[in-house]
Amino acid sequence: MSILCAVAFVLGGCASTDLPQTQANGSQAGENVFRPDPQRVRSMLVNDENGIEVRQLVIADDPDRIAAALAPWVQAERHAGSARFIDRRTESQLHRNGFRLIRVPVDKLDELIDELGGTVLDMASWHGQMYRWHDLHGLPIGSSGLTMAVDGRVKQYRGGDLRLTARSWLVQMEHGPRVQLDIVPQHVRSQSQYHRLLGQESRDSEPLASLAMHMMLKPGYAYILTCECPQRNWEAQVARTEAERGQRDEQSRRRVGPVMMGPDVSAPMTIGQLMLTS
Questions:
Q1: For residues 224 and 8, is the Cβ–Cβ distance under 8 A?
Q2: Residue whose C-alpha is closest to residue 208's, from 102, 96, 131, 103
Q3: For the stretch 243-276, what's the b/e string if a residue is b when 16 or more beta carbons lie within 10 angstroms of its beta carbon?
Q4: Measuring CA to CA, how many Å separate 22 from each of 34, 44, 173?
Q5: How many whole angstroms separate alpha carbon 196 and alpha carbon 120?
Q6: Separation between Cα atoms, residue 192 and residue 234, nearest integer Å
Q7: 257 — phi, psi (to 5°)?
């Protein structure tokens, strides 16, 4: 097993320096008022060297190692307060559906990859600014279909693809340029052979709006999207010792409860786990 990380929506060509400034007239004596230079700001916004680069990393599926590597960054984000890059409600919704979204400084990314045990596959692609929806990652669904948990309910899709689609554009903020990035999972239904032969390319899709991610990306950070079982708590997993695990497993085996009827089956995987586990 391996985990596919849609990693590092890394800003390319967006300097984290202050805005280009011009001195404005009309200030009080002894004061200088500076305002953004509109021409330079405009040229920055349309510069095709600004935008995002997406790296897709395949890593070994080692739950303990993944938890140890990513838990500190999850904790750091939870203590960020108003500086959080994603709101708690969205984070909780993603967590429930098997997605984990983490922010890591770009200069720490290679170190993090080493802590994860290196990569089996590492692919980078430059997307720049995507004003229309683009596919970042897809999972084909066979004719037999796929059953998964979405928002706590079991859903089955037959045929087509599950895709992560995104759009992005540069936004000039008070403290410098940022990239607005929207990501939406969706089910794209199969197109009939008849329409393909006629050259009628249409996209019949079902966006999963409850899982939409809206982020304002800051230069100097990599934004990592990966997956994990909703019941697994990385911080608690790291803190727990092997002895405590063994003790808990023993208590679980001795627990007395009602006799369950029917076959022993596991709950379906979440959409996040299905899409980002290979």
A1: yes
A2: 96
A3: eeeeeeeeeeeeeeeeeeeeeeeeebbbbbbbbb
A4: 5, 15, 16
A5: 36
A6: 44
A7: -150, -175
3-state SS assignment for residue 101: strand
Residue 170 buriedness (CB in 10 A; 0-12 / 13-18 / 19+): buried
| pLDDT one-digit tens code per residue, 20-68 | 444 444 444 444 444 555 555 455 555 556 778 888 888 888 888 998 9
Following DSSP, what letter does each residue of 44-72 receive, concatenated? HHT-TT-EEEEEEEEEE--HHHHHHHHHH
The upper half-sphere exposure of residue 131, i.e. CA atoms within 13 Å in the direction of its Cβ, equals 4
**Residue count (the chain):** 278
Integer Rg of the chain from CA? 23
Segment 250-264 shows an average pLDDT of 52
Report whether 216 contacts 205 (CB < 8 A). no
Residue-level pLDDT at 191? 66
- For residue 16, the cross-strand partners are none
Amino acid at 274: L
Query: 0.90 cut: is pTM over it?
Result: no
Return the pLDDT at 199.
Answer: 59
Burial of 62 (0-12, 13-18, 19+ CB in 10 A): middle
Joined tokens for residue 148: 């998964």
Cα–Cα dist 260/262, whole Å: 7
Helix, coil or strand: residue 94: helix
Q: How many CB atoms lie within 10 A of CB 228?
A: 22
